[in-house]
Each structure stands twice: as structure tokens, then as C-alpha cells.
């Protein structure tokens, strides 16, 4: 046990040398801080314009700071699109897609990466090809299927579509992770009497959990930002998502500059809050994946 104030020592008992940061490290830090400040400028401009009155925006311009805390633009936009209900739709759809797509990716990757089914390479190539298809090529077939099954203009239709779309990428990523899974660990679990279901949930999933957390965050954000398919499938006002409500209102030209800034701010804040909440989970997942 070292005495208070004594220099720290390594395992061999030798005193540890403190690493001094050179000028290059501080230069990189300053450059990163400056880059972060530059990236925050558009966000600050949006916040500033959302707190202005239309008269103040016209007289002072978009880059001038607001003279006070004016929430009229935010309040008008909230009431006009019923933003609370629209926000609930987006959270429900994005959250459901994130959870279901991760589960489907785990099942598919377990069969492809560990089960080693026949035609594995061709299936992975097909999934990779599916990720490159533009959504414009999928709209009409998906629209026709939704009409045939009677789920058109429902949130369930969008959840099903994006669960399949997102799981294609998740399956491709997880299958490469699970293909390198330690075989002795699987053999030991089978010798102990674990069946395939127990091997999946008690052995495989705990090991790949950091990767699953990263996919969960990505799937939520990607689904939140989707516009084309929700716009085609969700034509009723009570089923619209945040991105669709913003696009429809802007297309009708019913907003001035301050209300447009308020709409952009309200549409951006939920994803920022979600990212800040799961930032530590995301960084741990990326770090764990890099270490492995």
C-alpha cells in the first residue's frame, strides 16, 4: 500500500512516469473545440430565430440575437400541428422499430453467423444489396402490399416496413460479429446442457450487448429522420410523424421564418435529448467493439 503523497508505481514496483501532453495534443484539442463551435452555429441560429417575433426577424435579420424570450412562434407551431400527438407517434414508431429490428437482427445473425446455414454468403450479399436500394424503388410495392393487407395509413405499416429495412443492416453487421464468436465458449455451454435458445440469450447476447446498444440508438435516430415512406403511408393527421408534419406544413406555406425555426428546433430537440441520454451507452458500445 502506497503512502499518501508517494508517487504511483506499476506492478513491478517501479515509479510510474506521468505522460506530459505535448504542444500537438493541445493543438488538436483547440482544433476540436473550434470545430465543435462551428458545428453549433446553425443550431444557435435556429434557437435565436425561434425566439424572435416576425417583426424583429424582418428588421434585424436572421443573425442578430433576440431581444427577449419570445415563445409565440413555438406555441403557435405546437398548437397548429398538435405537436404533442405527433411527437408521441414518432416516439412510438421509432422506439418500436429500434427494439423489433434489434431482435430480428439477433435472430437472423445467430442463424447466419453461428448456425452457419447453407448459402450464408449469398444471403449476406443479398442483405448488403438491400441496403443500397433507394426507397423510391420500394414505395409502390410496399404501398400495394399495405393496401392488400388493410394496414395502409396505420402506424403498424410503417413499423413493419422499417423493422425489416433496419434489420437488413443489423443482420449484416451482427452476423460478421457472431461469425468470430469463440467456439470453445459455445461448446462449453452445450456440454453443460444448454439448448440453442439458452446459448443465444445466456452466452451470445451478453457478449454482443455493446453492439446491440449501438444498433438500438442508430435504428431509433434513423427511423426518426425518415420522411418519404411515412409521408406516403401516413396520410391522416392523427398518424403523422414529426418529419411528415414539418414537411406538410412547410409545403402548404403556412409558416413564416420564425415559425420555421421553431419547427426545426422542436423537431431536433427529441433526437438531441435521446442522444445525450444514451451517449455513454453509445460510446461504451463503440469502444467495446473496437477492443474486441
TrEMBL record:
<keyword id="KW-0813">Transport</keyword>
<feature type="transmembrane region" description="Helical">
    <location>
        <begin position="259"/>
        <end position="278"/>
    </location>
</feature>
<feature type="transmembrane region" description="Helical">
    <location>
        <begin position="25"/>
        <end position="47"/>
    </location>
</feature>
<comment type="similarity">
    <text>Belongs to the binding-protein-dependent transport system permease family.</text>
</comment>
<feature type="transmembrane region" description="Helical">
    <location>
        <begin position="156"/>
        <end position="178"/>
    </location>
</feature>
<keyword id="KW-0472">Membrane</keyword>
<keyword id="KW-1003">Cell membrane</keyword>
<feature type="transmembrane region" description="Helical">
    <location>
        <begin position="86"/>
        <end position="110"/>
    </location>
</feature>
<protein>
    <submittedName>
        <fullName>Carbohydrate ABC transporter permease</fullName>
    </submittedName>
</protein>
<feature type="region of interest" description="Disordered">
    <location>
        <begin position="1"/>
        <end position="20"/>
    </location>
</feature>
<feature type="transmembrane region" description="Helical">
    <location>
        <begin position="122"/>
        <end position="144"/>
    </location>
</feature>
<feature type="transmembrane region" description="Helical">
    <location>
        <begin position="199"/>
        <end position="224"/>
    </location>
</feature>
<keyword id="KW-1133">Transmembrane helix</keyword>
<dbReference type="InterPro" id="IPR035906">
    <property type="entry name" value="MetI-like_sf"/>
</dbReference>
<feature type="domain" description="ABC transmembrane type-1">
    <location>
        <begin position="87"/>
        <end position="278"/>
    </location>
</feature>
<keyword id="KW-0812">Transmembrane</keyword>
<dbReference type="Pfam" id="PF00528">
    <property type="entry name" value="BPD_transp_1"/>
</dbReference>
<dbReference type="InterPro" id="IPR000515">
    <property type="entry name" value="MetI-like"/>
</dbReference>
Amino acid at each position: 500500500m502506497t503512502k499518501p503523497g508517494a508517487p504511483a508505481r506499476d506492478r513491478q514496483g517501479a515509479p510510474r512516469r506521468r505522460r506530459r501532453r505535448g504542444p500537438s495534443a493541445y493543438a488538436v484539442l483547440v482544433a476540436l473545440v473550434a470545430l465543435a463551435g462551428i458545428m453549433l452555429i446553425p443550431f444557435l441560429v435556429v434557437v435565436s430565430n425561434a425566439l424572435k417575433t416576425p417583426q424583429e426577424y424582418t428588421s434585424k435579420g436572421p443573425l442578430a440575437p433576440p431581444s427577449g424570450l419570445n415563445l409565440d412562434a413555438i406555441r403557435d407551431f405546437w398548437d397548429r400541428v398538435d405537436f404533442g400527438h405527433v411527437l408521441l407517434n414518432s416516439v412510438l414508431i421509432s422506439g418500436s422499430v429500434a427494439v423489433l429490428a434489434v431482435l430480428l437482427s439477433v435472430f437472423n445473425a445467430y442463424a447466419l453467423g453461428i448456425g452457419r446455414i447453407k448459402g450464408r454468403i449469398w444471403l449476406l450479399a443479398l442483405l448488403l444489396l438491400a441496403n443500397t436500394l433507394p426507397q423510391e424503388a420500394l414505395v409502390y410495392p410496399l404501398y400495394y402490399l399495405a393496401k392488400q393487407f388493410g394496414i395502409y395509413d396505420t402506424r403498424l405499416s410503417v413499423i413493419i416496413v422499417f423493422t425489416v429495412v433496419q434489420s437488413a443492416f443489423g443482420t449484416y453487421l451482427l452476423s460478421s460479429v457472431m461469425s468470430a464468436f469463440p467456439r470453445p465458449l459455445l461448446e462449453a455451454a452445450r456440454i453443460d446442457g444448454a439448448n440453442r435458445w439458452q446459448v443465444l440469450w445466456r452466452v451470445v447476447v451478453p457478449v454482443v450487448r455493446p453492439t446491440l446498444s449501438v444498433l438500438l440508438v442508430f435504428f431509433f435516430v434513423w427511423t426518426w429522420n425518415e420522411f418519404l415512406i411515412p409521408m406516403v403511408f401516413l396520410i391522416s393527421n392523427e398518424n403523422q410523424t414529426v418529419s411528415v408534419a414539418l414537411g406538410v406544413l412547410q409545403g402548404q406555406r403556412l409558416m413564416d421564418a420564425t415559425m420555421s425555426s421553431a419547427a426545426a428546433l422542436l423537431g431536433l430537440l427529441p433526437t438531441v435529448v435521446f442522444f445525450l441520454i444514451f451517449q455513454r451507452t453509445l460510446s461504451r458500445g463503440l469502444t467495446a467493439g473496437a477492443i474486441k
